[in-house]
Design brief:
By secondary structure, the protein is mainly alpha-helical. The chain is built from 9 helices and no strands.
Length: 182
């Protein structure tokens, strides 16, 4: 069944997929699931297509026992497919989190494919997380990953009050790790 299930690219967002799993487990309603997924995707700049998510929820409803397991198998297969890393939405989300000093991405990237982005972000981080995030967003737009320019700005007062965007520079040990392990 997994091979016939269409997994939208937006579903590769791990937070959005976890919300779908909560729905499958009966922990949250369909409306709450769709609303939270819409918000999560908006925050990271990924377009939300309600019909795609409703299709996945329909699979769960039609086969409560195996529906989500089939979706999860298809999701894992899609993640394993070779996607050019600069076109990988989930990878870009991690880089954006790294720029804001919210993510540790040591094991996720091939250095030769990401070195130019890392170099730009590292240079920009000396001027603060806000500038580093802008550099990442510009690179995401260039690669066609970020479609909506209205992505949550990590430099806003709301973001700062939540701990986001308070970083003055990126950790040097991380750059050291990347350079000497690839």
């Amino acid at each position: 069944m997994a091979s016939s299930i269409h997994i939208p690219t937006a579903a590769l967002n791990s937070v959005a997929f976890a919300l779908l799993e909560q729905y499958a487990q009966g922990k949250i309603s369909d409306m709450i699931t769709l609303t939270k997924i819409d918000v999560e995707l908006a925050v990271v700049g990924i377009p939300f297509d309600q019909e795609e998510w409703l299709d996945l929820m329909g699979i769960i409803l039609m086969n409560p026992t195996d529906g989500f397991n089939s979706i999860k198998a298809a999701w894992q297969l899609k993640q394993m497919k070779t996607t050019p890393v600069l076109e990988d939405v989930a990878a870009w989300q991690l880089v954006l989190g790294w720029a804001a000093n919210e993510e540790n991405i040591e094991d996720r990237f091939k250095f030769d494919e990401w070195s130019s982005v890392f170099d730009e972000v590292f240079k920009a981080s000396c001027e603060g997380a806000t500038i580093a995030v802008k550099v990442v967003k510009a690179a995401m737009i260039k690669c066609g990953i970020l479609y909506r320019p209205s992505v949550h700005d990590l430099s806003t007062p709301q973001a700062s009050s939540s701990g986001v965007g308070k970083v003055s520079s990126l950790p040097g040990y991380f750059i050291y790790f990347i350079v000497f392990t690839y």
